[in-house]
Amino acid sequence: MSDSNSSQYQGPIIVFDAMCVLCSANAQFVLRHDRIGRFRLASMQDETGTGLYRRFGIDPADPDSMIVVDGAQVLRDSDAILGIYAGLGWPWKAFSLLRFVPKGLRDPAYRWLARNRYRIFGKRETCWLPTPEQADRIL
After folding, report:
1. What domains, with CATH codes, occur in the chain?
2. CA–CA distance from 137 to each of 23, 39, 43, 73, 131 (Å)?
3. Which band of pLDDT confidence, cut at 50, 70 and 90, is reported for residue 69?
């Protein structure tokens, strides 16, 4: 990402699977409840999301995690989910208390769900698209 585009990438970016029913529902939840507009979203199916996955060593064709990118830092697996909820404010911030559950328990559960997300929740026929009011939050 070049400096000329740096303003486009201000704040944390959630990279998610727009074909996944669960992931799309989570993206819509974030857009609805992130009242201060802290988070931006990028689909792993588009150029921005693919580039961010590659930047952090994740195969965009077979991602094992959604990620939250904030500058040079990346959160993945259960840390990404907890980081999102912590950033939404109250009452959603209360879910971030789950960070006290050891990662050795949280991450395997997250990875199992991520691997089975299409089978359990379904796969969309087309990528989820934001409403016109949400479009400025999508990269």
Report:
1. 3-124 (3.40.30)
2. 16, 7, 12, 20, 10
3. very high
